[in-house]
Amino acid sequence: MLFETIVVGPLGVNCFILGDKQSNEGIVVDPGADCEMILAAIAQFGLKVKYIVNTHGHFDHIGCNRILKEKTGAQLLAHEEDVPFLVNAGRSARKYGLTVEDSPQPDAFLVDGMKLEFGRRELEVLHTPGHTQGGCCLYLANEKLVITGDTLFADSVGRTDLPGGDHGQLVDSIRTKLMPLPDDTVVWPGHGPSSTIGQERRSNPYLNE
C-alpha cells in the first residue's frame, strides 16, 4: 500500500495520501493547505482519488477540500456534527490572521463503524468526539495503522478549549476506541510525529492521570 505524509500549511498539518497500488485508487485525508503540492503528489503516484476525508472540520485541515474535489472528482466525507466548521472555515481562519476557503458540503457523512474501500484496502471510521463533536479516526487493521487527526498525538491529546471541545469526552473516546487497538498499531496524528498505541498506553500523561 502507498502511504505518504505531506506537512501542509502554517500550522503544520499532516495530510495523508493512501493508495492501493494494484487498482491505483486512493484517499486523501485532511488536505489542509498547499493544494498544488498535494495535487502534484497525487499525479506523481498516478492515483485516482476516490475519497477526500476530513478527520474533523477545523480550518487548518480542510482548506483544499474544494480544489481537490473539483480537480479529482472525489467524494468529500466528513462527520455531520462538523459541517458548521467546514462551511465557516474562512471566518474561523481570519481570527488567526489566516486565509482559508470555505469547504463545500460533504457528499456523505462519516459514521462510526463505516468502512471505506479503495481497491483491495479497507479503512474503518472510528467516531472519537472530544476535540470536536464530529472528530473521527481512520483505522486500517491490515496495515496496522490509525490516522488520529487531532484526537491523539504522540504523548499528548487534542485541545478541548475550542467550540465543541470536551476533555473528559476526548479521553473517553481515546480509551474506548483507540486503546483497544493492538500495541504495534502505528498512530499517525494530525500534527507532529508518529507513535504507537502501545507507547501511548504506557506513557501518554493525559491517559494516565
TrEMBL record:
Signal peptide (UniProt feature, chain positions): none
Region called Disordered, residue ranges: 186-209
Domain of life the protein comes from: Bacteria
UniProt keyword terms in alphabetical order: Hydrolase, Metal-binding, Zinc
A Pfam family: Lactamase_B
Transmembrane segments: none
Cofactor: Zn(2+)
Database matches in InterPro entries: MBL_Glyoxalase_II, Metallo-B-lactamas
Metallo-beta-lactamase domain mapped to chain residues: 12-191
Keyword Zinc assigned: yes
PANTHER family in the cross-refs: HYDROXYACYLGLUTATHIONE HYDROLASE GLOC (PTHR46233)
Protein name in UniProt: MBL fold metallo-hydrolase
UniProt source species: Geomonas subterranea
Lineage: Bacteria, Pseudomonadati, Thermodesulfobacteriota, Desulfuromonadia, Geobacterales
